[in-house]
Amino acid sequence: MIERSLEVELETGLQARPAAQFVQQANRFVADIFIEKDKKRINAKSIMGLMSLAVGHGEEIMIIADGTDEETAMEELTDFIKEK
Q: Can you give the CATH number for the domain in which 71 is found?
């Protein structure tokens, strides 16, 4: 299991379209992937869960990945948050 804390650099945060794109990308991996914000942890493969966090621009989140492709998942999802 690996964890990474990062600041959301997406201009709109993880709302609407970016949230859907993030969930699509997360679903490509076998690893279990979670996002934690303000001590609330959700399954990153669930659009409803992600929307419930209401992650805005500049907010701090933790991504947790656990599984056979956890490193690849972490790199690609971090890139999405940082570069989109």
A: 3.30.1340.10
